[in-house]
Amino acid sequence: MKSIAIIYGSSTENTKNAAEKIAEHLSDYSPTLVDIYDGEEEPFLAHDVLILGASTWGVKDLQDDWSDFYHRFEKLDLGGKTVALFGLGDSFIYPDSFVDAIGIVYETLVEKGCTIIGQVSPEGYHFDYSRALVNGVFVGLPLDDDNDADLTDERIEKWVESLKPHLD
Fold first, then answer.
1. At 33, which CATH number?
2. Residue 51 in contact with residue 36, Cβ under 8 Å?
3. 3-state secondary structure of 83
4. Domain range for residue 96?
5. What backbone phi and psi angles, to 5 degrees, belong to 86?
6. Mean pLDDT split into 10-residue runs, the chain, 168 residues
7. In angstroms, rounded to a whole number, what is the distance separating the alpha carbons of residues 104 and 99?
8. How many distinct structural domains can be found in the chain?
9. pTM
10. Which of these, 131, 87, 84, lies nearest to 107 by C-alpha position?
11. Cα(5)–Cα(89) distance, rounded to whole angstroms?
């Protein structure tokens, strides 16, 4: 079984809550939960699978803890890692930059040669543009707890099930 780290940054607890729900659904895999606020590089390097959670703030801005760590993240040797992304955003106030943070992280991961899993259809989401939409699909799981909180649990459960074939 592959070792899994769920690494997230959270300012309002929404991303942390999503990370914890993902961890619950993956409890058979004993994932390690890591708050990127701690600024540790080791979890990125020590695990086979990384599940990264980032929220988008304002227009195309990473959450503060991700932003503070990002210059170090860009230098990490993550080639060969399997990575899934989830992100939180507000599709009504920021419809032109919905979950852009996971698009930003994705672009760096692709340059590093990571295998990205967990793409999601945009069906059922309401937004105008997202940097996280690549070739007609989201590069990870978009969540909008400000406007679609009632869909979060179902979206997480379905997404985690789609990841499991890649985790053994």
1. 3.40.50.360
2. no
3. strand
4. 4-166
5. -140, 150
6. 95 96 98 96 97 89 93 96 97 95 97 97 97 98 96 98 96
7. 9
8. 1
9. 0.97
10. 131
11. 22
